[in-house]
Every structure is written in structure tokens, then in C-alpha cells.
From TrEMBL:
The keyword Transmembrane appears for this protein: yes
Top-rank taxon, per record: Bacteria
Primary location recorded for the protein, binned into one broad class: membrane
Lineage summary: Bacteria, Pseudomonadati, Bacteroidota, Flavobacteriia, Flavobacteriales
Name this protein carries in UniProt: Sodium:calcium antiporter
Length: 331
């Protein structure tokens, strides 16, 4: 068991630092290509920081053969990403809560996130319409709705261009597109290789502790694969780019559910969502409520923080804690 814990910890540390660098060079790459910071930053950063979830999801079903680890990792990452909003709010000024610093444009991404996570819940609870031996209609809809959300957010940002926010990084004159692209690819490979072995250690922890794969997937795997989101969010808060950080987290949740589409393709035992434990529904409900609270916060943010957190981020934190307690008891 100690080898599994040590291996898991080492992988988590590597993912954190590689994810921080990957986010840095991904941001530079967006600037150097000149494709538009708001659009490329939103899509690129959320996709980049979700690389660990993608690799863990694929390796969980193709190597370990565990539907529970794959689904638990995805819904757990969605919940943890929303929990990061509370962490970010701790580091904002008392008279400027997190949600008072961001635009209402995030409501669009949050709404698509709710639609996708509701479909995950339906796939866990209902018998899906089988399209192929390893693909159901709900899993296919993840891909369709993801593409629709990307298109809708792109069109919205064209019509409503966001105000320029403070940059998280400063571009050096010596930086070239080629060098940035190579470094970006190198750190991406590091994350892919490291994330691919995480499910092996997570399964060992689940077996030796008796906690269950749903709980381990939702807690340990989800937290470790969300380390890049933590890194980029902390950088954004320190540089005053709250909008970029919130957009990255909500975009990551949309992409995370899209990962289940690929997971179902690689899962050959049947339908991924149907073979996963019903305990994952607890996390699905938690993500729905947490996202709804975030939407309310975007529309009517608190003017000040009574304690370390505003009312909206405090509610999100309490919901995340309640989710983990319920999952632990069920496991």
C-alpha cells in the first residue's frame, strides 16, 4: 500500500509542476499565434489543464478496466474545479469578492456545464439507447453538445468582446513560436505519461484501504488531475485575471464531461456510465447545485466578505464538503 501512496504522490507532484509550465507556455502560444486571447485562452487553457483527466480517463478504462475510476475522476474533477473557486476567493480583497470581479459571460459556460452533467446523471440512472457495443446515445451527445458549446461561446465572445484584463505572463522578446511550441509539447508529454499510470496507484489505494473506487476516483484522482487548474488559477488571481481563471475552470468542466465520450469508446466491457456505481450520482447532484450557486453569484455577487469567503463561494465549499462526506459513508 505504501508503494501505491508514494507512487500516487510522486505522480501528483509531477502533474502539478508540469501543468503549471504547460499553462504558461500554452498562454504564450495563444499570444504568439495571434488568434485572439479571449477565444484561444478560454478553449486552449481549459483543454490543456484537462489533459490529466483525459489520460486518466482513457487509462482507467483501457488499462485498469474500471468504469468507476473513470466516471468518479470526471465528476469529482468537476466538483473540485468548482471548489477551487472558493480557494481563489480566499486570496481576493475583502471588499472585492471573486464573483464581483468577473463578467456575466461565464453564465453561458456554466449553463452548458449543467446540461452536460445532468446527462451524466441520466446515463448513470437510466438504460441508455445503444448505438454500438461500446457507445450509447448519451455518450454520443457529450461530443455533440461540447462542440455546440464551443461554437456558442465563440459566437458570444465575437458579439460581446471582453475587456482586456491583466496578463498572467509577460512575453519576452526572445520567445519564438517554435521554442514555445516545443516546450509546450514536451510538458504535455510529461503530463500524458504521468497521468497514464495514476489509475494503477489509485486502484491499489482503493483495494488496500477498502474505500471503494468511486470515493478514490472522486477524491484522490480528481484532486491530482485538477492540480494544473489550481496552478493556473493561483497565477491568475495574483495577476488580477479573475475572469481568465473562472473561465478556465468552467471550460475545464465542459471538456471533462466530453472526456466521457472518449472513455466510452475505449471501454469495451459495455456502456461506461451504466457500469459505473450509482454512488457517482451524489457528485453529479453536487456539481449541479454548485454550478447553479455560481450562476447566482455571477448575477448577484456579494459586495463584501463577512469572513474569508463571500456567501456564494462559502456555499460552494460547504456543498463540496457535504459531497465528500456522503460519498465516504456510501463507500
Amino acid at each position: 500500500m505504501y508503494i501505491d501512496i508514494l507512487g500516487f504522490t510522486v505522480c501528483a507532484v509531477i502533474i502539478f509542476f508540469a501543468g503549471k509550465k504547460l499553462s504558461f507556455y500554452g498562454d504564450l502560444l495563444a499570444e504568439l499565434t495571434g488568434m485572439g486571447k479571449a477565444w484561444i485562452g478560454f478553449i486552449l487553457m481549459s483543454t490543456v489543464t484537462s489533459l490529466p483527466e483525459l489520460m486518466v480517463g482513457i487509462s482507467s478504462v483501457s488499462i485498469v478496466g474500471s468504469a468507476d475510476l473513470a466516471v468518479g475522476n470526471i465528476v469529482g474533477s468537476c466538483a473540485f474545479n468548482l471548489g477551487i473557486l472558493s480557494l481563489m476567493d480566499v486570496f481576493t480583497p475583502r471588499n472585492k469578492p471573486l464573483f464581483s470581479q468577473v463578467s456575466q459571460s461565464h453564465i453561458l459556460a456554466a449553463s452548458f456545464g449543467i446540461i452536460l452533467i445532468v446527462l451524466v446523471g441520466l446515463g448513470l440512472y437510466l438504460d441508455d439507447i445503444i448505438i454500438s457495443p461500446s457507445m450509447g446515445l448519451i455518450s454520443l451527445s457529450f461530443g455533440v453538445i461540447y462542440l455546440l458549446s464551443v461554437r456558442s461561446i465563440y459566437n458570444y465572445q465575437k458579439i460581446n468582446p471582453a475587456e482586456k484584463v491583466a496578463e498572467a505572463i509577460e512575453q519576452s522578446p526572445e520567445v519564438t513560436l517554435r521554442s514555445v511550441g516545443l516546450k509546450y509539447a514536451a510538458f504535455a508529454l510529461v503530463i500524458i505519461a504521468t497521468a497514464s499510470v495514476l489509475p494503477h496507484f489509485a486502484e491499489g489505494i482503493a483495494i488496500h484501504t477498502g474505500l471503494g473506487e468511486s470515493f478514490v476516483g472522486t477524491l484522490f484522482l480528481a484532486v491530482s488531475t485538477s492540480l494544473p487548474e489550481i496552478a493556473i488559477s493561483m497565477i491568475a488571481i495574483r495577476t488580477g485575471s479573475a475572469d481568465m481563471a473562472v473561465g478556465n475552470l468552467l471550460g475545464s468542466n465542459i471538456f471533462n464531461v466530453f472526456i466521457l465520450f472518449f472513455g466510452d469508446i475505449f471501454y469495451t466491457k459495455g456502456l461506461l456510465l451504466k457500469d459505473a456505481s450509482d454512488a457517482n450520482l451524489i457528485s453529479v447532484f453536487a456539481v449541479i447545485i454548485m454550478t447553479a450557486v455560481a450562476i447566482i453569484g455571477f448575477i448577484a455577487p456579494g459586495r463584501s466578505k463577512k469572513i474569508f469567503l463571500a456567501w456564494d463561494t462559502l456555499a460552494i465549499l460547504l456543498l463540496y464538503i457535504a459531497n465528500m462526506i456522503l460519498l465516504y459513508k456510501l463507500s
